[in-house]
Amino acid sequence: MSKPTLTTESGAPVADNQNSSTAGVGGPIILQDQHLLEKLARFNRERIPERVVHARGSGAYGYFEVTDDVTAFTRADFLNTVGKRTETFLRFSTVADSLGGPDAARDPRGFALKFYTEEGNYDLVGNNTPVFFIKDPIKFPDFIHSQKRDPFTGKQEPDNVWDFWAHAPEATHQITWLMGDRGIPASYRHMNGYGSHTYQWTNAEGEAFFVKYHFKTNQGIRSLSSEQGAELAGKDPNSHQTDLLQSIERGVYPSWTLYVQIMPAAEAADYRFNPFDLTKVWPHADYPLQRVGRLVLDRNPDNVFAEVEQSAFSPNNFVPGIGPSPDKMLQGRLFAYADAHRYRLGVNHTQLPVNAPKATKANNYGRDGLMATNAYGRHAKNYEPNSYDGPAQTNEALSAPLAVAGYTGTHEAPLHTKDDDFFQAGELYRLMSEDEKKRLVDNIAGGLSQVSRDDVIEKNLAHFHAADQDYGKRVEARVRELRED
Ligand code: HEM
Predict the structure, then answer these.
(1) pLDDT, tens digit, 9 for 90 and up, residues 75-119
(2) Which PROSITE patterns match (predicted)?
């Protein structure tokens, strides 16, 4: 079989890919060996900055199919007809570790979904947990510093992890979730995905609703115990990647059913707790799950670097009929992601195939910057307004306006009548079986007992006591036991 010719980057044939050019036999290498120089120089540039969080991940393409009519709540085009399919790309991830960290860690999992809709790409950048540790974005860099490697020791430190949490009573709910049975998913296929934040839907009449997204796995929830996780993380650090890749290659396509909880916008102000507080769930008894559609992953990327490492999701990528809520965390994220992409990938990252719209085309006046290609041709103007036939604004807001009142200032989010940082953590604890409670307490105490300062331990114990007396007592007893050992 005749093979194609190996070429340099500029397309010239390569004479020898085994021996570099030298000055005589056994002599030093000569500078004119273009192929060698190019190969070594390219190799030095093969890594880009990893994501500052969620560095380790796996991705797959698929589709979303609408199964239920939600047009009363949103005018989003991709949701407007039962049976309509939209191409998607989903990237799963762990959060705290760097690239190369083990998949089977006790850590939230990212669930970042891109819908390539006919009205532009819609990114829903969620996790496998319905809540989060904090509720103001100004705390996010400190929070992440405390969970990642310490600048001096170069490793994760229980002192830092728990010291941050000692100062973040609002994290008690998410800690209870993370240290519980769902804290180490058996694979990416066996976990749910959540939008976590409250988002806004707007229907064709301009009526606004607040919504929370729930993607329920159709593979069933499967998790690992701490011992199983530690063993698997050591034996096969790529366990989740292997599972996802092989399952799709075998034609066993993972799927999730999407449900939403829908709150009419007028009910938000008087709801018994702040519906935009990311540390809380909305009880299903108040707002039941309503089915929307089905997400199926059926194609692996051909190149992990090009399509997974370079994929970019921004919570600010909305389409008509969907918008943000006033959740402060979400508002902070609306800035953070595209900024990260411009740093990590460059200003033209939206032109990469995985990030570019597929069902429509971007059409605007941005042109230059690193790695620009000219997609517009020689006659297109790069300014607006213009007297030519360049693209023009629609004068239609994507979503309904949010009502605001009062003065600017560094305000805490408003407290509603039932708001506190602990009651939902207590409710989650009381839902657990005796065995689950035992594992939860062991997992928390396993970490907390390693903390060097008693005052930090005491502050954390106070949070578990506040959530539920029995919960607090048992964590305290187990921590004391482990510290006496
Ligand atoms: C104010 C709070 C937050 C900030 C400032 C923040 C910031 C970031 C940044 C800078 C990245 C890296 C983006 C990149 O390089 O492509 C990232 C990734 C990610 N974040 Fe957040 N984050 C926040 C909260 C959250 C929350 C609450 C969730 C889930 C509900 C979340 C889910 C994710 C996911 C899934 C990724 C990975 C996306 C991917 O696969 O490319 N983050 N975050």
Answers:
(1) 999 999 999 999 999 999 999 999 999 999 999 999 999 999 999
(2) CATALASE_1, CATALASE_2, CATALASE_3
- Whose CA is closest to 298, among 58, 63, 59, 57? 63
Q: Would you call 465 a catalytic residue per the annotation?
A: no
Would you say residue 413 has pLDDT above 90? no
Residue 202 C-alpha to ligand 1 middle, in angstroms? 25
* Band of residue 418 on the pLDDT scale cut at 50, 70, 90: confident
Could you tell me the domains of the chain?
57-154+183-351 (2.40.180.10), 423-484 (no CATH)
392-399: average pLDDT = 97
**Whole-angstrom Cα distance, residue 15 to residue 33?**
11
pLDDT tens-digit readout, 264-282: 999 999 999 999 999 999 9
- Which residues share a beta bridge with 257? 216, 294
**Given the residues 44, 80, 121, 127, the one annotated as active site:** 127
Please tell me which residue in 17, 35, 44, 54 is annotated as part of the active site.
Answer: 54
Instruction: Tell me, rounded to whole angstroms, the distance of Cα 101 from its chain centroid.
Output: 16
For residue 450, the number of C-alpha atoms closer than 13 Å in the C-beta half-sphere is: 12
Closest approach atom of ligand 1 to CA 195: 30
Contact 76, 321 (CB under 8 A): yes
Q: State which ligand 1 atom lies nearest to the alpha carbon of 51.
A: 15
Q: Residue 352: how many CB atoms within 10 A of its CB?
A: 16
Residue 205 has pLDDT above 90, yes or no: yes
pLDDT tens sequence across 346-364:
999 999 999 999 999 999 9
Best of 125, 142, 280 for a ligand 1 pocket test (most atoms within 8 Å of beta carbon): 125
Structure tokens at 43: 């190799």
pLDDT at residue 317 is higher than 90: yes
